[in-house]
Amino acid sequence: MPVVNPIPKEKAADAAKPIYDDLTKRFGRMPNIFAVMAHRPAALKTFLAFYASVMSEGTVEPKYKELAYLKTSLLNGCEY
C-alpha cells in the first residue's frame, strides 16, 4: 500500500509554515495527519477551518468526537 509521508516544517511550503507554528503551539507538536496534508497547503488550510467547526460546535464533547475518529481509524486498519 502506498504511503504518503508527513512533511517536516523545514521542508514545508512557506504558506504552510504559520500553520505548523499554530498547530505546534496548540498541540505541542505537529500532528501527522496535518503534516501529511501539508503536501497541499491550500487543502490543509481549508480542512483546518472545517475541522475547527466540527470539533468546536454541536452538542457532542470534543473528546468523544476524537474517540469516534480514532475508533474509525482503528477499524479501518489505519496507522494513526
Show the helix and strand layout.
Elements: H1 17-27, H2 32-37, H3 41-56, H4 62-75
Describe this protein's structure.
This protein is an all-alpha fold and 80 residues long. It has one domain. Helices cover 59% and strands 0% of the residues. The chain is built from four helices and no strands. The longest helix has 16 residues. The chain is globular, with a radius of gyration of 13 Å.
Shape: globular
Largest sheet: none
In round numbers, the mean pLDDT is 91
Give the CA-CA distance, first to last residue.
Answer: 15 Å
Number of strands: 0
Write the H/E string, N to C: HHHH
Strand content: under 5%
* Uncertain ranges: none
| Count of runs of 4 or more consecutive helical residues | 4
Q: Portion of residues in helices?
A: 55-70%
What is the structural class? mainly alpha
Radius of gyration computed on alpha carbons: 13 Å
Number of domains: 1
Keywords for this structure?
mainly alpha, 4 helices
In short:
By secondary structure, the protein is an all-alpha fold.
